[in-house]
TrEMBL record:
InterPro entries referenced in this protein's UniProt entry, alphabetically: HotDog_dom_sf, MaoC-like_dom, MFE-2_N
Extent of the signal sequence: none
Entry superkingdom: Bacteria
Lineage: Bacteria, Bacillati, Actinomycetota, Actinomycetes, Pseudonocardiales
Organism of derivation: Amycolatopsis heterodermiae
Pfam families: MaoC_dehydratas, MFE-2_hydrat-2_N
Domain MaoC-like: 159-266
Ranges in coiled-coil conformation: none
Segments forming domain Peroxisomal multifunctional enzyme type 2-like N-terminal: 18-142
Protein name: MaoC/PaaZ C-terminal domain-containing protein
């Protein structure tokens, strides 16, 4: 049986020690499209860290595709889509550091024709202080029907008014080529022949790159460029982006959170990120 929730839920799936430097942070910010007018992201003198760096920090020097073979879970990587991503910050991410990431399977849901596996990673500094917690959900097509819980509803109640702000952000034609230097070397993001075999007309941008680009823009526009104000940032991946496309981000502002949706302008507002929530102080 590919998925056994009784075995999988709560299973610890590894502990990794890793480190990063200001050069890693600078590269990450350039891969998100940060430019010369954003020196807090592109120059080491007053460098700060966009919190979505948490999604790449442990894998900066890991270049092999991940294996989906965990206790109670054995599924084909070709059937897997990245469904959701969330990070919760326990403080500003330092520009240089050493840390330990401890991963576990937090939950497994049965959606009938598919399974959802929720992975949680707690990251602590070398002295044991909490840095961040990341949760990611993967959607495994054809792996449902094992009799598990469907899981709770996570629908967001959206305001009935039009968005308070609409932002447009161009991506770079070479953006995926830059972002893959942060650890994800999947040929889907660089090789036209591989992308064509996967059903795409050209290589696509990493979903986590779009996630980081939108975080950077929101921090700049609504948090005075101060990443330390971010409490958490969560999204659902609703569609692909092709490098060079323009992102249209609609924002509804609340007292302590931003509700956000992002689409691709050139493809008639094709959805890209949905149910996106950034909490802040």
């Amino acid at each position: 049986m590919p998925i056994d929730p009784a075995v999988a839920i709560g299973a610890h799936i590894g502990e990794v020690s890793f480190a990063w430097t200001p050069s890693d942070v600078l590269l990450y910010h350039l891969a998100l499209g940060a430019g010369p007018d954003e020196q807090r992201y592109t120059y080491e003198r007053d460098l700060v860290v966009v919190p979505t760096f948490a999604t790449v920090a442990a894998n900066l020097r890991v270049f092999e595709p991940p294996a989906l073979s965990f206790p109670g879970v054995e599924i084909d990587l070709a059937k897997v889509l990245h469904g959701k991503q969330e990070i919760t910050l326990h403080g500003p991410i330092p520009v240089e550091g050493k840390a330990v990431a401890r991963s576990r399977i937090a939950d497994v849901f049965d959606k009938g024709k598919a399974a959802v596996i929720v992975q949680e990673v707690d990251v602590t500094s070398a002295d044991g202080s909490p840095l961040w917690t990341a949760r990611s959900s993967i959607f495994a097509r054809g792996e449902g029907g094992f009799g598990g819980s469907r899981g709770p509803s996570d629908r967001i109640e959206w305001p009935s008014r039009d968005p308070d702000f609409v932002l447009e952000t161009p991506t770079l034609p070479q953006q995926a080529l830059l972002y893959r230097l942060c650890g994800d070397r999947n040929p889907l993001h660089a090789d036209p022949a591989f992308a064509s075999a996967a059903g795409f007309p050209s290589p696509i941008l990493h979903g986590l790159c779009t996630y980081g680009v939108v975080a950077r823009v929101l921090i700049n526009e609504f948090l005075d460029g101060d990443p330390s104000r971010v409490g958490s940032f969560a999204t659902k991946f609703a569609g692909v982006v092709f490098p060079g496309e323009t992102l249209r981000t609609r924002v509804w502002r609340g007292d302590d959170r931003l509700l956000v949706s992002t689409s691709a302008v050139e493809r008639e507002d094709a959805p890209v990120l949905a149910d996106t929530v950034l909490t802040f102080t």
